[in-house]
Amino acid sequence: MVENVCISPNLNKEDMDPENVTRMIILGPKANVSESEIVNHMHLLTLPLTIKQTCYGAMVSGKEKDVLEAIKEVRKLDPYNIFTKDRGFPPGDPRRCRGHRKGPREGFHQMEKEFQLLGHVSDALKNPRDVSLEEETCVPVDEFEDIMNQCLLDEELKTGDNDKEE
To answer: Which pTM was predicted?
Structure first.
C-alpha cells in the first residue's frame, strides 16, 4: 500500500526530455477500427515512438514531430472517429499509471464523460453546417415598443374595417 502514496517516479532521460510529448488517441463510439489496428498501423510507420495500446485507443509518446505525424496517418483510417488529446505524463509513469496506483487514474472519469459526447462530435464532423459566431442581442426597448405599437395599430385598422363591413 505504501507505493500508492509514495510518488517517486523512476523516469529515464527520454521521459524527462521537454521536446517529448505524449498524446492519447481515443476511438469514438462509432469507430470503424479497433485499438489494435491503430497500434499496429503506428508500429508500421517505423517512427521512433513509444506506443501503448489502451482500453480507449492508444497512447503515443516521442518527439512532437513524430507523434503528430503518427496521429495524422492514423486518423486517415477513420477521420471522423479518431480523436486525440494531450497527456502530461509518459506511458507507464508511476504517478499516473493505473498499475502502480491500484485503481482508476485521475482523469479517467472525465475522459469517460467526454467519450459519451464523441458520437455527437463525429456526427458534426461528418455533416458540417454553417455556424454564426455572432452573439444574439436583445431588441432595444424603444424598437420593441415601436414594433408593438405598429402591430396594435394594424390590428385596430383590421378590426375597424371589419366593423364597417357589418
So the answer is: 0.63
